[in-house]
Design brief:
With 376 residues, the protein is an alpha+beta fold. It contains nine helices and 15 strands. The protein is rod-shaped. It starts with 9 loop residues before the first helix and ends in a 10-residue tail after the last helix. Bound molecules: zinc ion (2 copies).
């Protein structure tokens, strides 16, 4: 049976007695449907829900076969449980005693809906024109070193399936109407009876989309999709690393016939910087200093991502020494605040003036430190 039947009172939904005639059922439905139709209540979620309920109730009660099954389920439920499950009076699921057996429990017991469906010969295969889930898509985006550090709002070009530009993905020719399917009440699924059982399967009237389209869009033939290039806006978070993949939910290929869209995976490529290197959230920078600066000590100006910072080089600094400037690295949206790692490199002049040469020779005469003693 339909998994919802046990909790639903279709007579109550339509406001009619159990003994109502087919004509009375129809009259009640028409009146309620008019009042609660989504077209008459645009944007009203409650009315839409109510309309679905009404349509579902009508779909069941207007079909003499289904109504008979439903009445049977109601009576069994009212009499205190499902002792008579499977048409065996008083037999069935002893373990459940007098408790009501929920349909979900039965499905668990018997191996799921699919299993039951197979058992009775109707598979869960969707009709070819039913709604399908859009595929996930992958694209790549190259951003500058600075944008990776600070984060950036930008857009990517995506090539491939997109929502139809003529019908905006509705699948309906502009100007033609799209209505909630009355057979399934927009749920896309209907109860299929098989003896006492009934199972959900895609609605034959709307092919499981839950909507009825008056005239199919001529551009996409009702699928709501077409192949084209489109732009997707995205926010790249501060501190993103080269090779990171951002997943944009619902920005992949659109679903066909009203199915849900897939996701878009954007692989981030970070262009290298001329000035900086990067280790996680730390920035690295190499700064040349002269022999005299290294020997005597100095203060030098070092670039950061925003402005310069003064760094003290103590007297006697060897070439290759790294100084850490706290908090001047990358400030990621999540994670540790990075530092700036300044590595000094003693630069040797390629050419010297006469005066420099004279001074260096004089200096050499005064040098006393045996710097290669450890090699002997
Ligand atoms: Zn279209
Ligand atoms: Zn339908």
């Amino acid at each position: 049976m339909n998994r919802d039947w046990l909790d639903k009172d279709f007579y109550d939904v339509l406001g009619i007695p159990e003994a109502a005639t087919a004509e009375e059922v129809k009259k009640a439905y028409r009146k309620l449907a008019q009042t609660h139709h989504p077209d008459a209540n645009p944007g009203d979620q409650a009315a839409e829900e109510r309309f679905k309920e009404i349509s579902e109730a009508y779909a069941t009660l207007s079909d003499p076969e289904q109504r008979k099954e439903y009445d049977q389920v109601r009576r069994l439920a009212a009499s205190g449980g499902f002792g008579g499950f499977g048409g065996q009076p008083g037999g069935g699921f002893g373990g459940f005693g007098g408790q009501q057996v929920r349909v979900e429990d039965l499905e668990d017991l018997l191996g799921g809906v699919g299993g039951l469906g197979d058992l009775f010969g109707f598979g869960s295969q969707r009709s070819r024109s039913g709604p399908t889930h859009g595929a996930d898509m992958v694209t790549e985006l190259t951003i500058s070193f600075e944008d990776a550090a600070f984060g950036v709002t930008t857009q990517v070009n995506v090539e491939g399936e997109a929502s139809c530009s003529k019908c905006q993905g509705s699948g309906a020719e502009p100007g033609s109407s799209v209505t909630t399917c009355p057979t399934c009440g927009g749920r896309g699924m209907v109860a299929q009876n098989q003896g006492f059982f009934s199972f959900s399967q895609p609605c034959p009237q709307c092919n499981g989309s839950g909507r009825l389209i008056e005239q199919r869009c001529t551009q996409c033939r009702g699928t709501g999709t077409e192949k084209r290039r489109r732009q997707v806006k995205l926010r790249v978070p501060a501190g993103v690393k080269d090779g990171t993949t951002l997943r944009l939910a619902g920005k992949g290929a659109p679903g066909r016939f009203g199915g849900p869209p897939g996701d878009l995976m954007v692989r981030i490529r970070v262009a290298p910087s001329r000035t900086f290197g990067r280790k996680d959230n730390d920035l690295t920078v190499k700064v040349p200093i002269t022999y005299t600066e290294a020997a005597l000590g100095t203060r030098i100006e070092v670039p950061t991502l925003n402005g310069g910072v003064k760094v003290k080089i103590p007297a006697g600094t060897p070439s290759g020494k790294t100084f850490r400037v706290r908090g001047k690295g990358i400030s990621p949206e999540r994670g540790r605040q990075g530092d700036l790692l300044v590595t000094v490199q003693v630069a040797v002049p390629k050419k010297v003036t006469k005066e420099e040469k004279r001074l260096l020779e004089e200096l050499a005469e005064h040098e006393t430190e045996d710097i290669r003693s450890h090699l002997r």
